[in-house]
Amino acid sequence: MAKTGTAFGAPLPVPPIIDPASRGGAFDLIIQEGKSRIVSGSETATYGYSGPLLGPIIRVRSGQSVTANVVNRLPMLSSVHWHGLFIPSDIDGPFNPIEPGQSWSPTLKVNQQAATTWFHPHPHGDTARQTYMGLAGLMYVEDGSAEAFDLPREHGVDDLPIILQDRSFGPDGQLIYDRSPMAMMHGSRGNTTMVNGAVRPVSKPPAGLVRLRLLDGANARNFRLTFSDDRTFHVIANDAGWLAEPVPLKEIEISPGERYEILVDFTDGKPVELLTTPDHNGRFGDSIAERAKQLVATMRERREAVLRFEPQPAPNRPKHVLPKALSAPERAEPSRAVRRRTWTLDSMMAANMPMMRASGAAMDHGGHAAPASAGGAMPGMPGMANGMRMGINGQVYDANRIDADVALGSQEIWEIVSTEMAHPFHIHGATFRTLTKAGKPVAAHEAGVKDTVLVDTKAELLVSFNQPSTRDKPFLFHCHVLEHEELGMMGSYLAQSST
Length: 499
Hints:
This protein is mainly β. Helix content is 9%, strand content 37%. It has a domain at 334-496: Immunoglobulin-like, CATH 2.60.40.420. The protein contains six helices and 35 strands. The strands form six sheets. Strands 12, 13, 14, 16, 18, 19 and 21 form a seven-stranded mixed beta sheet that branches. The radius of gyration is 21 Å and the shape is globular.
């Protein structure tokens, strides 16, 4: 049974679509402060892109070049990472900081298959807080294939963006961003789940096949999603493109940075709720067997209802049918890999334990031992002030170090090893196919083209390097628990032609 909590009622917010093709091939993004009504009776200080919270959806077409005119109106520097858009490193955000009052206008040449991508800040040392304050937006890459498959595609009607996040609020309605050592170790987790910036909203789609574009935009939380009536849905796309065919599931887990597109059939017209179970990831030192027990226990816990669907009769609308086939990704050929590397995501638990003990923060995932308002400037790295560190292969991130040189156009097998907890792993500027997870073949719904993957113990990835980077602006790879990234669980690679 799902827990009740706040009653449903507010309509699901649907961000507006911006189509640069109708605006001379350009779009504007204003990074700004704002006020948002999220919790009852309060105005919450937030950040947003061209609005008070989150951002518009940018719709681009493969083969199109668009110019992003980004203006920073925050009182601190920011940047924009085009997460999932495959472009050279010199026009991505991490090494293109935008000072307060300044602008940045990269021209993005889009050349990839249809996908749901997103954008968020990436200023090293303040990525987590700025994202927590509300900076996140979706970008849809279109190539005509959705029309060919006759997929639902009417924005805000039968094609719905679903941005999942968790946040905590103080008695005054203001966001609380937990900077305690314990929160840094687990990643900052809130006690209130939001969908598109709203708490327990209601969507009224037409009674028929509906497309949901899922994004986990949380700092650290994994969402394990199912429907209150246990209905089957079909996964049709991963982060970077279509699956070969729809994959039926009753439950799906999504980690920070990941995207899935699913089709849900509301033809029966019955109201139903989207549920998520508590996230037990982040309990350090648990064995695989202990995690399995936690998952079984989770199934018995009261699930949280985060979004209610109330399908409406739509007798005059065209009826979409679940496609039998989509677009099979190119066959993954591990034999083509020119090199194998191992990257161990190291939480450095032994070194960080004294800081956690000194903090006196004996807290559960929903607690907040050292809460502070999220709205103020936060110079430097939030956890580093406590002396905490995390790394990859025993090394804390260094902006002056290149961790790997790869040949442009090549493929490599990267073995990702997670210690103490499962980590979502993201690579900038590259796509990959997940070959195995925990030593087993990857599940069918994860078999497509991805840029982010949840790694529990170990995963093998066949990575394709098709975008160039420069030594002063390399590509990054990191844990997408944003606090872990800022504590140093990040590396950089240089992708250049070997000729």
